[in-house]
Amino acid sequence: MMTRIERSFRGISERLARRYLTNLGGEEIDDETVAGEDWAATISSESVGIGPTLTLTEVTVVFEGEEAALESLVEDFAQKAMRAGG
Length: 86
Fold this sequence. Notes:
There is one protein chain. By secondary structure, the chain is an alpha+beta fold. Helix content is 34%, strand content 45%. The chain is built from 2 helices and 5 strands; from the N terminus they run βαββββα. The protein has helices at residues 14-23, 67-85; strands at 2-10, 27-28, 33-35, 39-50, 54-66. Strands 1-5-4-3-2 form a 5-stranded antiparallel β-sheet, with helices on one face. The chain is elongated, with a radius of gyration of 13 Å.
């Protein structure tokens, strides 16, 4: 069964998200998509306001694939992203 998980991360770039996903076994398909054997991830970003004057880039990753493959992938990606982004 195919599963879809969407997670957002602040403090990392789309480029860094792609690098993390390729390090986790994926291959870049295009600027927005990285795919592994049993999964694919689509990356997008937007600026979000934090308080009255500060904006940050928020990167959203939509993971799709087999549930068993996504469980460890999403967790491993989140650990990398949190170490980088704070």
